[in-house]
Specification:
Layout (H helix, E strand, L loop, with lengths): L1 E5 L14 H12 L3 E6 L2 E8 L4 E8 L6 H8 L5 E8 L7 E5 L7 H10 L5 E6 L9 H5 L5 H24 L2 H9 L8
Parallel strand pairs: 1-4, 1-5, 5-7
Antiparallel strand pairs: 2-3, 3-4, 6-7
Helix pairs in contact: 1-5, 2-3, 5-6
Length: about 190
């Protein structure tokens, strides 16, 4: 079973912000899939994708707890037999650059820290979407909670759409090695 979690903040005022890139990816993923059942549970909007042949269910999750408390929602939904994939913004990657890795520290991302703390482990997949960094550290909060410029938005949508395509393959194939290779080879300056 896959538990695919996009980090973001609830509310229309956050919808188009850099910090909500995890939700952008999930929105695009949902458009590519059919037969999703929506449920509200565990402080989240949860879309279930049932696989009749495999008799499995995958979950696409929008935590409604706000970014810094995402662990509360994930802990409520997570079971050890699940493969957890968390999609989030990353200030240290240039705009539109994407990376997948398994485990490791949160690198200062409070949503990821919340999940690590709640689960008591860092053993899960992260899909990092580069949003760039503001010039001054003092501007970080306003930067992540602001809408990207037009050229940045285009790069982020290209990256988010590519991730959604790769998640569709992951759902079908369950091949994390291929998923990681494909994401990590994405070039935001090319048409992939």
């Amino acid at each position: 079973m896959l538990l695919i979690v996009g980090l973001g903040n609830p509310g229309i005022e956050y919808e188009k912000t850099r910090h909500n890139i995890g939700w952008w990816v999930l929105d695009l993923l949902r458009m590519k899939l059919t037969s999703l059942n929506l449920r509200l549970l565990c402080y989240s909007r949860v879309y279930e994708l049932k696989h009749e042949l495999k008799k499995e269910v995958d979950f696409i999750v929008y935590p409604l707890t706000y970014m810094n408390n995402s662990g509360k929602a994930v802990k409520c939904l997570y079971e050890p037999r699940m493969d957890l994939v968390v999609i989030h913004d990353d200030l240290d990657l240039t705009v539109g650059k994407i990376r997948v890795r398994f485990g490791g520290s949160s690198a200062g991302h409070k949503g990821v820290s919340s999940i690590i703390d709640a689960l008591g482990t860092d053993s899960f997949w992260r899909v990092k979407v580069g949003i760039g960094r503001p010039f001054s550290k003092k501007e970080v909060i306003n930067y992540v909670l602001d809408e990207p410029q037009k050229n940045e938005k285009e790069a982020l949508i290209r990256a988010a759409d590519y991730i959604a395509d790769q998640l569709c393959l992951l759902i079908t194939e369950r091949n994390f090695t291929r998923f990681q290779q494909n994401i990590n080879s994405f070039d935001p300056n090319e048409n992939n």
